[in-house]
Design goal:
By secondary structure, the chain is an all-alpha fold. It contains seven helices and no strands.
């Protein structure tokens, strides 16, 4: 990979790398740091990385592995930056932001590999074969992780909704 090919790869794929990291952590600062690390790693190993589909697969795999490594060695868990939170809109949106945030937290509570599989499947819209190549696992294992992760999210969501139903309704006088 030449210097021009490296620059082209960065311009072409920086959005994908950032998106994977951002969907994994839901934190722009961490996603930017991971993207920088991945592209630095690409620059350092540019002789062994080919261009085209090999480069894309290498970037995806490196990004997921960097996300997992960052999660393992970090002391933060689901850190939320207050200054990056959106303003409360005047109009009520059609989707429920509390439900979306709850879903993000449920996904964040999954173990590393199933979370990575879900992020790649639904965040990056990749099929099981692509995910298997990136994470270096058989396609059936990818499907197992997807099935177990969605079942676990359903179970946790139903427990959460049941807890909400059981809570007493509070009025101003109580």
């Amino acid at each position: 990979m030449t210097k021009a090919e490296f620059e082209s790869a960065v311009r072409e794929h920086q959005g994908m790398v950032y998106s994977i990291a951002c969907n994994y952590f839901h934190n722009a600062a961490i996603a930017e740091e991971i993207a920088q690390d991945v592209f630095l790693q690409l620059y350092e190993s540019h002789l062994s990385v080919e261009t085209g589909t090999h480069c894309v697969a290498w970037l995806r795999r490196s990004t997921v592995h960097r996300c997992i490594d960052t999660l393992r060695r970090s002391s933060f868990r689901n850190e939320i930056q207050v200054d990056l939170m959106p303003e409360i809109p005047v109009d009520v949106p059609e989707t429920d932001p509390f439900l979306q945030e709850r879903l993000r937290r449920l996904i964040a509570s999954l173990p590393e590999t199933p979370r990575a599989v879900l992020v790649l499947r639904f965040g990056e819209d990749m099929d099981a074969e692509e995910i298997g190549r990136i994470l270096q696992m058989p396609v059936r294992t990818v499907w197992s992780h997807l099935q177990r992760a969605t079942a676990l999210i359903r179970e946790k969501a139903s427990r959460y909704l049941k807890e909400k139903e059981d809570e007493p309704v509070r009025t101003r006088s109580s």
